[in-house]
Amino acid sequence: MFANDPVRVVFLAGTGCCAADDGFPQALSAAPSCRMALVRCVRAFAPLLGRTSKGAEAAFADDEASGVGNRTPFANLPAAWQIGFGRARPGMQCAESVTFGSSGLDRAVHLRADPPGGRVLPLWRGKPLLEREGRRPVFLSADHQAFDTASEPAVFLGLDEGEPRHARDISDWLPEGGGEGVGAFNDTSEQQHPALAGGCAFADLRQNMTRLSVRDAELVVIGKALLEWHRTHRFCARCGAPSRMAMAGWQRNCPACEGQHFPRTD
């Protein structure tokens, strides 16, 4: 480990920095104090990579003089030394293409007190209604027969290209067969609602996440998360009295003690 990447190991130990992948924040490695610490690391461990500390420090100086260090710190160092200095690995995705990274969905906070009507995504026991072929979420009209068994109002997800989008739980509906296998980690079962066409069914989100677009994934996950929060937070955490949904699903209010409760958004 030290022979392959001594500077990265020492940098981790010296700064307390840790990351989920091989990279460090570029700004951190470019900070003057960190750069000085890394120079000291180079002096100590250069012999392990068969390079003199004087030659390694010259590479640092070349970066500084050329301005490369401001963009990609330590670009002139050997490849083995550059792991962890702000260089992305081949094939690493950009943040813009990662799910939930930049869908651009308008959450329309200003509309939550009096949300506009719009199409609604039904979810059954956390499973969204998806097309069988394209696997896109299926939004229904608010008065669709599938919502006859719903006991709670819909939650407002936001504006999708200007169109209001909502989600509503219909878990009180009992499918034929009783929903065997539902809730398992590898839930491959699908449930067909009698009021819906055969081209769509309730399917596990984990099984279909990679087939959704960034926008569709954001809409579905917001709906699933909010509805699950309401299912598990029906009582006031302050006094224990039943609380009520408010602000189009983004808040719960307690009529007994006037407490206000909010879902986590991190």
Descriptive overview:
It is a single chain. The protein is α+β, with helices and mostly antiparallel strands. The protein has 3 domains: 6-82, no CATH class; 109-225, Nucleoside Triphosphate Pyrophosphohydrolase; 233-266. Helix content is 28%, strand content 14%. The protein contains 8 helices and 9 strands. The protein has helices at 6-15, 26-30, 32-45, 53-66, 68-71, 79-82, 205-208, 214-232, and strands spanning 119-124, 127-131, 155-160, 163-169, 190-191, 200-203, 244-246, 251-253, 260-261. The strands form 2 sheets. A 6-stranded mixed sheet has the order 3-4-1-2-6-5. Strand 8 (251-253) and strand 9 form a beta hairpin. It is globular and about 60 Å long.
Features:
Nucleoside Triphosphate Pyrophosphohydrolase, globular
* CATH fold-level name of the largest domain: Nucleoside Triphosphate Pyrophosphohydrolase
Strand numbers in spatial order across the main sheet: 3-4-1-2-6-5
The share of residues in extended strands comes to 5-15%
Uncertain segments: 1-30, 68-74, 77-93
CATH architecture of the largest domain: Alpha-Beta Complex
Treating each run of at least 4 consecutive H or I residues as one helix, how many helices?
A: 8
Average residue-wise pLDDT:
76
> How does the major sheet shape up?
6 strands, mixed
Number of strands: 9
Number of domains: 3
* Quaternary assembly: single chain
Element string (H = helix, E = strand): HHHHHHEEEEEEHHEEE
Structural class, by secondary structure, is alpha+beta
CATH class of the largest domain: Alpha Beta
Computed CA radius of gyration, to the nearest angstrom: 26 Å
Shape estimate: globular
| Distance N to C terminus | 34 Å
Binned, the helix content reads 25-40%
